[in-house]
Amino acid sequence: MNISAEHKAIDQTLDTYRDLLDTLTDEQFAASPKAGGWSIAEIYSHILQATLVASIAVERCINGTCETTRKGLSLMGRFVLFFRRFPFRVATPIVEASKMTVTKISKEDARNLIIKCRRRIDAITPHIADESGIHKIKHSRLGMLNGKQWFKFTLIHLKHHLKQIDRIKNKFSD
After folding, report:
1. What is the pLDDT of residues 56-105, one digit of tens each?
2. Helices and strands counted in the chain (H then E)
3. How far apart, in whole angstroms, are the C-alpha atoms of residue 173 and residue 168?
4. Could you tell me the pTM of the whole model?
5. Concatenated DSSP letters for 38-92?
6. Angle (nearest 5°) at CA 64 between 58 and 70
7. How far is CA 40 from CA 26, 43, 49, 75, 95, in A?
């Protein structure tokens, strides 16, 4: 894994999220799809909270303040990290959803969360190379991830939700 390239890609993806805010009206940002599901504001709430949670997981793995285990990735975890995408649309597990409150945030809140995510990512990136790989934190679907895997997952997850946002945006033009 090229940590520098992953960091650059995460930065670029966060830039995409930031730039996307300027293309949406406040109404589009907050509108819930007619067919159900999250609004774009709720997706931003979810993805930015999840990015912060993942950055904390990376930091804990780096610092060794989590479980030391030989347990590894689930089959889905191997697929996601190898192919760098989710095999299908997946709903957030109820257990995980209960840990993060997804709300309709404002565009300004989204901008501030993007800045906070970027700062966390910038702070942990220089230390990832030193991570041993034996300290892991469980992801509800992907299994036991070490710090490098959490970092890689962050980018995959960010990109996954951009596709979801595109689907919602396309419904505005229908």
Report:
1. 999 999 999 998 999 999 999 999 999 999 886 666 554 555 566 789 99
2. 7, 3
3. 9
4. 0.91
5. --HHHHHHHHHHHHHHHHHHHHHHHHT-SEE-S--B-HHHHHHHHHTS-SS--PP
6. 90
7. 10, 5, 14, 30, 22
